[in-house]
Amino acid sequence: MAEIINMPRLSDTMEEGTVATWLKKVGDKIEEGDILAEIETDKATMEFESFHEGVLLHIGVQEGETTKVDELLAIIGEKGEDISAILSGAKTEEKVEEKPDTETKTESATGVAIPEGVIVVTMPRLSDTMEEGTVATWMKKVGDVVEEGDILAEIETDKATMEFESFQSGTLLYIGLEEGDSAKVDALLAIIGPKGTDVSDIAKNFNAEGTPAEKVEAPKPAETKKEAPKKEASKPAPNSNANLNANGRVFVSPLAKKMADEKGINLSQVQGSGENGRIVKRDIENFTPSAATASVGKFVPTGQEDFDEVPNSNMRKAIAKNLAKSKFTAPHYYLNVEFDMENAMAFRKQYNSIPDTKISYNDMIVKACALALKQHPQVNSQWFDDRMQLNNHVHIGVAVAVPDGLLVPVVKFANEQSLTQIGGAVREYAGKARNKKLALDEMEGSTFTISNLGMFGIESFTSIINQPNSAILSVGNIVEKPVVKEGQIVVGNTMKLTLACDHRTVDGATGAQFLQTLKGYIENPVTMIVS
Question: Can 507 be counted among the known catalytic residues?
Answer without folding.
Answer: yes
